[in-house]
């Protein structure tokens, strides 16, 4: 309803032929997060909704200059660390394919044995970070993991955008709904309709109107939970209207969300806050605009916590090979906000 239908493909992504596209700069998306959600069944790779393998296929077949994926905080659970590490390795070396009948654990071991500089196939410099949308001008506490990848031949170093608002200046629910009419009153806003039945109980208390909203959720079993209610100063609660939820997710007022209330909230809850997406997109655009003549340093992941080392090709480093460490020299370089020893 919001895009040219010529560019919208309604099909199972597992059956989609990416070869119809060429010269792609960016692949962006959010592989279904329910397999990793703290509110879901948390089956990860055992969940048929896990579409990270299809995300890797898109990268492998389209070979974009960059990619950006978003997912829930639950992806960083300790119990998921081995599989998340596997995802990162697959995104780093997307054309290093698994063998027929091979387990993901076996494939992961073979991926980890690769040495980035010596791999001549398709490869990306991959980073991830947990961001809170409230720090970027979104009136909502929403922590999500972002994964960024730059193709190895692309100049420029990715830098995560700094928060745009101070903690004390975070936008509140009231900041975005104060100009809206009472949903029970007469008005002409089709997506601002009162929904009855809201009530508060432990674990289902709604979002304080004078604070950023709790995370707008899709709801695993129909109607979303208490995060999609507004709690007023007198203690009363009511469900957010579609328009209110849409504004809290920073969608433009004219953006159309179709379907009944529950379906509309599901769509909104599954989305990335538009303002944060724009900030990430502009930062990535600036990164891709860096001169092609700039020297590209290989980045090496130092662990599963997202830390990366920047290796200078004019210096020598110790290299750890299959459990035996051969030392030539050791150097320390600062990466992000920490100092780590290079290997």
Overview of the structural elements:
Strand 8 and strand 9 form a beta hairpin. The chain has a domain at 5-166 and 277-296: Rossmann fold (3-Layer(aba) Sandwich), CATH 3.40.50. The protein is of the alpha+beta class. The radius of gyration is 22 Å and the shape is elongated. The strands form five sheets. Strands 1-2-4-3 form a four-stranded mixed sheet, covered by helices on one side. Strands 5-6-7 form a three-stranded mixed sheet, with no helix packed on it. The N and C termini lie far apart (51 Å). Helix content is 20%, strand content 17%. The protein has helices at 52-62, 81-92, 104-112, 173-177, 242-248, 261-269, 274-288; strands at 26-29, 66-72, 124-132, 143-151, 207-208, 229-231, 237-239, 299-301, 308-310, 319-321, 324-326, 332-335, 338-341. It has seven helices and 13 strands.
Secondary-structure map:
Elements: E1 26-29, H1 52-62, E2 66-72, H2 81-92, H3 104-112, E3 124-132, E4 143-151, H4 173-177, E5 207-208, E6 229-231, E7 237-239, H5 242-248, H6 261-269, H7 274-288, E8 299-301, E9 308-310, E10 319-321, E11 324-326, E12 332-335, E13 338-341
Parallel strand pairs: 1-2, 5-6
Antiparallel strand pairs: 2-4, 3-4, 6-7, 8-9, 10-11, 12-13
Helix pairs in contact: 2-3
What characteristics describe this protein?
343 residues, alpha+beta, Rossmann fold, four-stranded mixed beta sheet, 13 strands, elongated
């Amino acid at each position: 309803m919001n895009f040219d239908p010529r560019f919208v493909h309604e099909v199972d992504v597992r059956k989609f032929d990416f070869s119809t596209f060429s010269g792609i700069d960016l692949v962006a998306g959010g592989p279904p997060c329910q397999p990793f959600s703290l509110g879901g069944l948390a089956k990860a790779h055992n969940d048929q909704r896990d579409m990270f393998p299809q995300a890797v296929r898109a990268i492998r077949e389209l070979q974009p200059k960059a990619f950006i994926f978003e997912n829930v905080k639950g992806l960083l659970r300790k119990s998921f660390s081995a599989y998340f590490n596997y995802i990162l390795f697959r995104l780093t070396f997307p054309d290093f394919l698994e063998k027929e009948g091979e387990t993901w654990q076996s494939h992961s071991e073979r991926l980890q044995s690769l040495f980035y500089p010596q791999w001549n196939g398709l490869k990306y410099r991959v980073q991830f970070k947990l961001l809170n949308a409230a720090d970027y001008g979104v009136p909502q506490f929403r922590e999500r993991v972002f994964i960024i990848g730059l193709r190895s031949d692309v100049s420029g170093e990715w830098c995560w955008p700094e928060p745009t608002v101070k903690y004390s200046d975070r936008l509140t629910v009231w900041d975005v709904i104060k100009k809206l009419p009472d949903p029970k009153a007469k008005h002409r806003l089709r997506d601002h309709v009162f929904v009855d039945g809201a009530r508060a109980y432990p674990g289902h208390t709604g979002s304080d109107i004078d604070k950023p909203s709790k995370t707008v959720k899709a709801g695993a079993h129909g109607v979303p939970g208490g995060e999609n209610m507004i709690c007023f100063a007198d203690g009363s609660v009511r469900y957010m209207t579609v328009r209110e939820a849409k504004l809290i997710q920073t969608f433009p007022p004219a953006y159309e969300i179709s379907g009944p209330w529950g379906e509309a909230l599901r769509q909104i809850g599954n989305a990335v806050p538009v303002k944060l997406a724009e900030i990430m997109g502009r930062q990535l655009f600036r990164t891709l605009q860096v001169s092609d003549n700039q020297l590209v340093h290989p980045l090496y992941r130092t662990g599963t916590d997202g830390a990366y080392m920047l290796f200078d090709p004019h210096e020598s480093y110790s290299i750890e090979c299959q459990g035996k460490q051969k030392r030539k020299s050791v150097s320390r370089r600062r990466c992000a906000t920490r100092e780590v020893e290079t290997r």
